[in-house]
Amino acid sequence: MMYSLWLGLGLSVMLLASFSAVSGAPNLVCFYDSQGFQRQGLAQFTMTDMELALQFCTHIIYGYAGVNADNSELQSINKRLDFEQRHLAQFTALKDRYPHIKFLLSVGGDADQNEGNQYIKLLESGQQGHRRFIESARDVVRRFNFDGLDLALQLPRNKPRKVHGDVGSAWKSFKKFFTGDYIVDEDSETHKGQLTALIKDLSSAFKANNLLLSLTVLPNVNSSWYYDAPAIEPSLDFINLGTFDFLTPQRNPEEADFSAPLYEAFGQNRLGHYNVNYQLEHWLLQRVPAHKLNIGIAAYGRAWKLSTGSGDSGMPVVAAAEGAAPAGRQSKQEGMLNWAEICQLMPNPSNANAKGADAPVRRVLDPTKRYGSYAFRAADSNGEHGLWISYDDPDSASSKASYVRSKNLGGVAFFDLTQDDFRGQCTTDRFPMLRAIKYRLL
Q1: Which of 386, 419, 251 is nearest to 320 (CA)?
Q2: Where is the signal peptide (predicted)?
C-alpha cells in the first residue's frame, strides 16, 4: 500500500511538471520557513510534508540565512538546525528526486534578529565587505548544492501611520510623507546606489557559477528608496513582491483593516498604495518585465483584538481595536493566525456551542474579489474575546493567481508552506491554498 502511495505521488509530480513545461505555466515560488521543522504538535512541518508540497512548486526557497554584522559574511542564524541537525543538507538532498525544481537559499526575511542594522552595514561596507558577502554566499550555496540565492534584505520599513478618518487627516498624512516627517533613512539614496552595486557584483559572480539570483521585497519596504529597478533588473532572475501585511496589528494597533487587498479599497480615506495592484504597477512603470515579477500571497492572516468600542458590525475600517489578538495554539505569534487556525474558527459542528475564545467567528466574503474576505467576533459585554481577521483563503488566493495570469506575470511567491493547512485539518486535501494557486496558474 505504501509503495502504491509513493508511486502515485511520483506520477503526479511528473505529470504536473510535464504539463507546466508544455503549457508555459507561471512559476510558483514556494517559501519554506525552516523554523516550521522545530515547531511542536500539529504545527511541525516534516520532510514528508515537504515532499507533498514539492509537486506543486517550481522553485523552493529555504529561509533563512543571515548576515554577520562584524564581517559582512553570510552566516547561519540557526547553526543547531542547519548544521548539527543537517537540515540544510536534508533539504537540498531532495533535488535528486525533484530535478525540475530550483532550490534557493534566502537571506534575511525578517528572521535575522542577531543585529539591528546589519543589512545597512552590509551596504555601507564598501567593495571589501561586498566581496566578503559575495564569496561567503557563493561558498554556502555551492557547498550545500543550492541552485541560487534569494535576497530578502531587512531594510528600514515605512513608518506606520493612521490613514483613516476625515479628509483633513488623510491630507496631513500625505503631506507629512512628502515633507519628510516619515523618512526613516536619510541616506536612502546612497544606500540605493550601494545596493545596486552589490546586486550587480553578486550577479556576475553567480552567473559565472551558473547560479540563480532573486530579490524579495519585504512588506512595507519603500521600493522607491532602495531599489533602482531599471539598473538591477538585468542582474536578477526574478523578483518576489511581498504584497501583504500592508496593515498589521503591530503597525496599526487601533484600526483593523484589510491586510492584503488586491485593489485599492475606496472610502474612509485609505492610502492608495496599500494594495497589490499599486505595488505591481510601480515595478512595471520602472520598466521591469512582467515575466520577472512574482506576486506574494500569504498563507496566514492578521488578527486584531476588538473592544466594545469596535461595535458589532465588523465592517472595516474597524475602530477602537486593541492591537494584536492572542497567539494561536499552532502559530504561537500574537496578531497572526495560519490558515488552518483561521479555518477552524469558522462555524462548524465542533464549535457550534463553544463560548469565549473558542466561539466561532462570522465569515464575510468578498464577492468582488478585490479586497479579500474577513472574519470577526464582536467583543462580549465584558469587552473580552473580540477578534477581527483579515486573510487570504483558497478562493481569494485563486483569484490572485488569476490576476497573475491576466497580467502575464512571472508567477506567485507563496509565503509560506508551513502556514498552509498542510495536515488537512479543515479539508480532505492537504495544502489547500497551495493547490488552489497551482491549479489556477496551470
Answers
A1: 386
A2: 1-24
Question: What's the confidence (pLDDT) of residue 11?
Answer: 40
C-alpha cell at 141: 550555496
d(CA 179, CA 424): 50
| 432 CB neighbour count, 10 Å cutoff | 23
| 158 in Cβ contact with 220 (< 8 Å) | yes
Look at residue 256 and tell me if it is in a domain: yes
Asked if residues 413 and 29 have their Cβ atoms less than 8 Å apart, the reply is yes
- Gap between the Cα atoms of 116 and 121, Å rounded: 10
Question: What phi and psi values does residue 391 have, to the nearest 5 degrees?
Answer: -160, 160
**Distance (Å, whole) CA 157 – CA 122:** 17
| Residue 321, pLDDT score | 97
**Amino acid in the structure at residue 276:** V
Q: Is 15 within the bounds of a domain?
A: no
Would residue 209 count as lying in a domain?
A: yes
The angle subtended at Cα 184 by Cα 180 and Cα 190, nearest 5°, is 95
Burial class of residue 305, CB neighbours in 10 A (0-12, 13-18, 19+) = buried
CB 363 within 8 A of CB 426: no
Domain residues for the domain of 245 are 25-299+393-441
SS3 371: coil
Residue 330 lies in a domain: no
Total-model pTM: 0.91
Give the domain CATH number at 87.
3.20.20.80
* DSSP symbol at 319: P
Low-confidence ranges of the chain (pLDDT < 70): 1-24, 162-182
| Domains held by the chain: number | 1
The per-residue pLDDT for 162 is 67
